[in-house]
Amino acid sequence: MTTAPTTATAPGTEEIEDAGRVDVLIVGAGVSGIGAAYHLMDEFPDRTFVILDAQDNRGGTWWTHRYPGVRSDSDLFTYGYRFKPWRGPAIAAGGEILAYLDEVIDEYGLDEHIRYRHRVTAATWSTADRQWTVDVVRDDTGQRLRYTTSFLWMCQGYYNHAKPYRPRWEGMNRFQGVILHPQQWPEDLDLTGKRVVVIGSGATAATLIPAIAGKAEHVTMLQRSPSYYFAPPGNDPLAVELRALDIPEEWTHEILRRKFVAQMDLLARMSTESPGDLHAFLIESMRPLLPAGFDIDKHFTPRYRPWQQRIAIVPDGDLFAALREGKASVVTDTIETFTEHGIRVSSGEEVPADVVVSATGFNLSLFGDVAFAVDGEPVDFTERVTWRGIMISGVPNMAYVFGYFRHSWTLRVDLVCDLLVRLMTNMRDKGATMVTPVLRQEESDMPLLSFADPENFNAGYVMRTQHLLYKRGDREPWTHLLEHEQERDILPKADLDDGTLAYR
Ligand SMILES: Cc1cc2nc3c(=O)[nH]c(=O)nc-3n(C[C@H](O)[C@H](O)[C@H](O)COP(=O)(O)OP(=O)(O)OC[C@H]3O[C@@H](n4cnc5c(N)ncnc54)[C@H](O)[C@@H]3O)c2cc1C
Question: 0.90 cut: is pTM over it?
Answer without folding.
Answer: yes
